[in-house]
Specification:
- This protein is 40% helix and 29% strand.
- α1 runs antiparallel to α2.
- The radius of gyration is 31 Å and the shape is elongated.
Length: 176
């Protein structure tokens, strides 16, 4: 007969292996252009959203300003066309203009609205391209590899950095 007591049982086997990050993120260029700033080096810790590199952005900024000006012109044109349509409807109701003039005013208003929608889309596309001139870290982690240098011409889709998440690691080992 033996009395049962609480205790710690330690038993295990010695294994050796490699610790590796659970996630490795490859950061690629979304646009083609010249790099004007590299803000990190290999081994640097980065936070999500941190700017890692910047492309020459004058072309994208000019395209955005042009698209915004086109949007303003299209909005003004659509507003004027809608006002003309409203006035033509009132005149048609009073019998002062022909139905043909009403139909022409409706068509003009629809065309102006379509131009405005297209201009809005161009602004969104230009904003996206302008935003892509800044390369940001998608996750918190450490820069494992930097494959570009400052001033280098980079093609679209080229790999710029590899960032590893080192907050959670996994062990790769052979167990006997």
């Amino acid at each position: 007969v033996h009395k049962v007591e609480a205790g710690v049982i330690e038993s295990g086997i010695a294994i050796s292996g490699n610790l590796r990050p659970i996630e490795t993120v490859s950061i690629r260029a979304r646009i083609e252009g010249d790099l004007v700033a590299l803000n990190v080096r290999e081994g640097d810790f980065v936070r999500e959203g941190q700017v890692l590199a910047e492309f020459e952005a004058s072309e994208q900024e000019a395209a955005l300003r042009s698209a915004q000006a086109d949007e303003l012109a299209a909005r003004t044109e659509a507003s004027t066309a809608q006002w003309n349509l409203d006035q033509t409807k009132e005149l048609f109701t009073a019998g002062a203009v022909a139905e043909r003039d009403l139909r022409a005013a409706e068509q003009t208003a629809l065309t102006a609205k379509a131009r405005y929608a297209a201009a809005e889309s161009r602004v969104k596309a230009a904003s996206s391209l302008q935003r892509d001139t800044k390369v940001v870290a998608p996750v918190n982690g450490m820069v494992e590899r930097r494959t570009v240098e400052n001033g280098e011409r980079v093609t679209r889709g080229a790999q710029l950095f590899t960032v590893v998440r080192s907050d959670v690691l996994e062990l790769a080992a052979a167990v006997p």
